[in-house]
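USER: Note each token:
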Amino acid sequence: MPLTVFGGNLIILLIVLLWLISGNYTNKFKLIIQSKLLIASIIFFGLHVLGLLWTNDLEWGIHIVRKMWYFLLLFPILHSIVIKENIHKYIASFLLAITVTEILSYSVWFEIIEPFKNATIYNPTPFMSHISYNPILAFAIYIVLHRLLIQRDMGKIQIFLYGFFGLSMSINMFITGGRAGQVAYFVMLTILVFQFFKYSKMKALFISIFLFLTIFLSAYQLSPIFNERVDDGIKNYAKFSQVNEISRLSSIGYRMTFQLNSLEIIKKHPFIGVGTGDFPQEYKKVNMVNTPGIANATNPHNMYILITTQLGILGLISFFSIFYFQFKIAFRSTNILVRNVGFALPVMFLVIMLSDSYLLGHYTTLMFIFFSSFLYKDFENA
């Protein structure tokens, strides 16, 4: 999943084809309709198809629908074939792929190998951009530390390996440039501390603050890229309030501009949006009036705003229903892995989607669907 788009898509295609020709359709259908989470996912996809009815740009609308197909087909298919007893194997395979990615990232950073694909020595994220890499890495770190500190079902060698990779992955988080992933890292760390000290909230709060300050300040002093990204973020946010084009020409400035302009679209079409495919052309109209010197956008870099502009409040409610059922299943589960990780997964995505449309991107969407397919499997009615 985190190594290659082609390989991931090929495996997905094989899984879907084998599922479609394997028969036993009645039981498969019953399994799907019994899950409120899967129904919510299918309805969310269906609204995108329905949104084509009031879309002028049908070509772009179909493009968006194609990106959303995971919610119609892949999620239900994976959910119907995974086995809850194999959860640890699924997670281990994910961690193995992340470990390979991390080793190659360090190899580029230490100049052991030449930079390749997306990687540079300054920002060593080889297989994907830092926008996708860091959130995936943050979730992997959470899983490693959860196994080490909360599950604690390992021998001495495993304890050493998980401790080593928990530390090395944390360092890797701050030698790469994904700010959303770094925010996700601190969110995941805070969740983990509160889950560890579940009977002492004040202790969890103080330790969370201590860890945040210690790690943040250490990374700020020791990592040039983290130092630069933090300083740039603060400066760009401060300059944005001056409302001039120069202050907007930054990743943060562009995002804030995109989102503010998109809110104008929502005000005009609050209930059903502009349709699945009309965001680019509707944004262009607003941009020509409000910020003519800034480039047009096909994505506001905020998942909630994107969904609301396309499908209105109805679409946003449908979108949130997916997370609602994830939380509901996690809270009801007596399985510590499902309860804790099943809570952390939606929280992380709810946070990072404030800065980008992470359920449109290949890698992060696939991770969300992959973990959702087995974390909530057979626990929904528990």
Remarks:
- The mean pLDDT is 92.
- The longest helix spans residues 303-332.
- The two ends are 30 Å apart (CA to CA).
- Residues 1-81+258-382 form one domain.
